[in-house]
Amino acid sequence: MDLRKGFDIARYIRTIPDYPKPGIMFRDITTLFANPYGFRAATDELLWPYLSADLDYVVGIEARGFILGGAVAHELGLGFVPIRKKGKLPGRTIGQDYTLEYGVDTVEIHADAITTGDKVLLVDDLIATGGTAEAALELIRKSGADVIAACFVVDLPDLGGSKKLKNKGVNVHTLIEFEGD
Ligand code: AMP
């Protein structure tokens, strides 16, 4: 089913070369968010496969995953749970390290936010190498919950993240692709 007949999502994503460092083509989705049709088209397309899915929570990854995940959770009538960078969540947390190009970072979830048997939809704006999404997957699985699917507006398939996630048994839903990194 193609729900995008009237709206070209890719056209509203701004590309900023050499940000945050030389060689990176930063896909700036804030220009899509700022457009009322763009924000609705992206939200609708992310959630339509899950309209009648058996889900308990939407989990969004800081920070752009909060904007999309919040809208998706609201539309699906589900609660929203944040995954944040280390040190930002006030309650007891569980954490997961992941490798960046230079060094290691950590993401966290509240230890009591989701529990055994919960069914989760994971949301972020973009998947590149998949490091962030894999760390989120580990956190959700450590909590005892199942990731029913993960969805992203943008896939950078040359960086292999969506493939890695699929190889870990996750159903991955993405809206548009850009070549390269
Ligand atoms: P990764 O862990 O490599 O899959 O990177 C995904 C995370 O980093 C997402 O939260 C994105 O928002 C951000 N990101 C990585 N690469 C880009 C890019 N080229 N343009 C915009 N955001 C990016």
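^ adenosine monophosphate complex. The mean pLDDT is 95. The domain at 52-177 is CATH 3.40.50.2020 (Rossmann fold).
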